[in-house]
Amino acid sequence: MASRVWLITGTTSGFGAEFVKNLLARGDKVIATARDTSKIKHFSSQGAATLELDLSADQSALNQTIEKAIEIYGQIDVVVNNAGYSHFGIFEDESYENTMKQYQTHVFGTMGVARACLPHFRSRKAGTFVFLGSIAAWGGMPALSSYCGSKAALRTSVETFQAETQSLGIRTLLVEPGFFRTELLNSNNARYAETNIDDYKPLTEGLFKQFKQYHQQQPGDPAKGVQRIIDVVKGEGEAAGKDFPTTLALGPDAVDAIRKKCNDTLKLLEEWESLSSSTNFD
């Protein structure tokens, strides 16, 4: 099979870095991007192209960045929207600025990259988008309202995006990982906003300590997770012969959490169906 050209956001560590390494080993071409390219310059010696991409940029700037990316190899076949970070803070004292930064990274910037790539994919009637979501989109978690909310917004945005573009030869995959041993909980990446409200301090003190201690204890192996995603995109390994999915739970904890949410939702619908369904005109 001919090599493909992949553009990947957020390649300084975690899933992003694993994508670069795995794809180069498979013989594909990679455009590794980051806000600070000095942190990914080592990928150049390994055969990847590197490019600065800032998800806080406006649409015009993102369009220009993608135009530069296309010029590198003449085309892009797969876009992996991977960049993200975690922010911890109680909803009541969460700032507008912190909330907007979370949504800018996970929703506005991510969809801006996809929007910038669409003309190229439409002109070729081909292309694949991969969006890295989270099981956090399936239920709220204390002290993670901005993270959960932005991942839930990404989920529904991608579903709409897929419905609009599937007839154009464009494929869309939303991956929803559980807890993987990336740098997401690294003290340099995770942001913890200490509360000044005494009522919440017992909650935040326990949760923050728990998440900090969980760093590098997560069960998921990022290398295996990335391998599975690439197999799905390429139709190889366990994905061979299967229809391309629109969503993919990644990790047994993700499978369990999503299944529980679905079962709980069905139970709730059944319990309240009579009341919920008695709202039409007589």
Structure description:
The termini are far apart. A seven-stranded parallel β-sheet has the order 3-2-1-4-6-7-9, sandwiched between helices. A two-stranded parallel ribbon has the order 5-8. Helix content is 47%, strand content 14%. The protein has one domain (5-276): 3-Layer(aba) Sandwich (Rossmann fold). It has helices spanning 14-25, 42-45, 59-73, 96-124, 145-165, 201-214, 222-234, 252-276, and strands at residues 5-8, 29-34, 49-52, 78-81, 87-88, 127-132, 170-177, 191-192, 247-250. The chain is globular. The chain has eight helices and nine strands.
How helix-rich are the residues, as a percent range? 40-55%
Described by strand count, sense and barrel closure, the largest sheet is:
7 strands, parallel
Backbone CA Rg: 20 Å
Q: What is the molecular shape? A: globular
Task: Please write the string of helix (H) and strand (E) elements.
Answer: EHEHEHEEHEHEEHHEH
Mean pLDDT: 93
Distance between the termini: 61 Å
Number of helical runs?
Answer: 8
Assign the CATH topology: Rossmann fold
SS strand fraction: 5-15%
In the sheet with the most strands, the strands line up as 3-2-1-4-6-7-9
Task: Give the tally of β-strands.
Answer: 9
| Number of domain units | 1
Gross CATH architecture: 3-Layer(aba) Sandwich
Structural class per helix/strand content?
Answer: alpha/beta
The CATH fourth-level homologous superfamily: NAD(P)-binding Rossmann-like Domain
The stretches of 5 or more residues where confidence is low (pLDDT under 50) are none
Query: What is the CATH level 1 assignment?
Result: Alpha Beta
